[in-house]
Amino acid sequence: MRKFLILMGCSISGAYALGDGFYVGIDGGVAFQNFIYNNSTLNTQIGSTGLVVSGTAPGAQLGAFGGYMFDRHWGIEGGYQYMFNSSNITGAGIGNLGGSSNYNLNAQLVDLLAVGRLPIEDSNFAVYGKLGMAYASAQFGQYCTSVACATGSLPSGSGFTVAGGIGLEYMFTRHWDMHVEMMNYGGIMPINITSGGNTIGGWSDTSLTLAGAWHF
Predict the structure, then answer these.
(1) pLDDT single digits (tens) 146-190
(2) Is the pTM of this model over 0.70?
(3) What HEC string does the chain produce?
């Protein structure tokens, strides 16, 4: 009986509980950036057979973040994310250009999020959700048609959008955690991408990242 109680005590002491306080961390993963054509601007081009009206392509993503937990369930977080050039997407021509185009996307953003966290009892795991706002700047990394590639100013846009996501966290110690996370930016309010003064479409992103954080 005494050995059983000792083992139980060791098992319980091994579960690290995250309380209140500040934390900072870094993350990296894959950003699936999406561009949706504006039908009213491109109604003739996107009607062409074989040309897509939206495209999604993966690319690398790196970021940093910091936050404060008011208690073990609720907190606030801010961060910076950079989405590198995605792989190429083939779609409709933009503006008055016919035929097909080839382009990729990159973006960067800052966000401010509310965090809701639910620890899994008697374990070092917790599930959480995030919801807030982000200010994002997105642009084409290149834009080419069957004739030539564009030079100079490329289609771009910036603005505020809704940000939200879910994740799973594991506490290795009382200070270190690792978590996997899925975030969406612009799914509800896409960032308008403009070219020549016209809104040609909207940008959004879904990211899958692996992160590590230090809790003070």
Answers:
(1) 777 777 788 899 999 999 999 999 999 989 999 999 999 999 999
(2) yes
(3) CHHHHHHHHHHHHCCCCCCCEEEEEEEEEEEEEEEEECCCCCCCCCCCCCCCCEEEEEEEEEEEEEEEECCCCEEEEEEEEEECCCCCEEEECCCCCCCEEEEEEEEEEEEEEEEEEEECCCCCEEEEEEEEEEEEEEEEEEEEECCCECCCCCCEEEEEEEEEEEEEEEECCCCEEEEEEEEEECCCCCEEEEECCEEEEEEEEEEEEEEEEEEC
